[in-house]
Design goal:
Layout: E1 11-16, H1 42-59, E2 63-68, E3 85-87, E4 92-95, H2 101-108, H3 110-120, E5 124-127, H4 129-135, H5 141-144, E6 146-148, E7 153-157, H6 164-174, E8 177-181, E9 198-200, E10 204-207, H7 214-226, E11 230-233, H8 236-239, E12 247-250, E13 256-259, H9 262-267, H10 270-277, E14 281-283, H11 288-294, E15 303-304
Helix pairs in contact: 1-11
Amino acid sequence: MEKARQQTTDRVFMVRPCRFLANPETLGDNHFQVAERGTDDANESAQREFDGFVELLRSHGVEVIVAEDTPEPHTPDSIFPNNWFLTDDEGNLTIFKMYAPSRDAESHKEVLYNRLVEAYQPRVIWDMRPISEEMGEVLEGTGTMIIDRPNRMIYACRSQRLSEPLLDILCQRYGYSSVIFDALDKEGMPIYHTNVMMALATDLAVICLASIPEDQQDYVISALRSSGHEICDISMEQVYHFAGNMLSVRNHQGEQFMVMSQRALASLTDEQRAMIEKSMTIIAPSLTTIEDLGGGSARCMMGELYRYE
């Protein structure tokens, strides 16, 4: 009998920045970055926000593995490690190639890679980077893929960061099916990462249905409801406050949490907050500098480290 799979983990991997700033290589399709914000004290501010976030998670009993970034090579977005690796509860570690060269350098940094391997102790390491290079395409980890682990499904919106052929290869290897759809921002451009507009907990899906073309909405809604998820529909305006960039985690005692930034929390309606708090406690750090310059938020900062026997 196959063991029950946990949607959430009680352990996350985070990278403390050392040269954080707005990355010009990602501005082209990450429309959530605010490039004109000053960067003189950006790294110190980001470090303060990072340290406060780690302390907040640990105060709730969530285990945090911290890796310290190094100045060279310069990896301005290393604070968002969830995009270059994936773990599961069978001991598999998957490594992904990234779209921007400075981001791709993150997984090649020995200090980050070795810290991850030391913490997770994988049974199998599957490096998808050679396949990506051969195909000339990328699949940016849990930025592009929202994974329903108990039901073996992956939700993903189309963008240049998501290769459908690579996603098919991953699904075949790990026994997942995929729900692929379009999602557009307020300018009508593809949303670069699915985790900007969608988050998945055990029984709750937070999603911006307005970003999905009307003729595809029923397809996504049906998939979510068939797997027992209640839908918390957020607006496009809330997406721009990073309300889609949440992650459900738990502590060693099994208490469930939904992690989001203070900006995301402030954007929620009372009804949306009540839907989340029915089964989870909200953890909300202040991440203003990281959000404005990096174009990512709480979920992007946490790479899940699942436990296995």
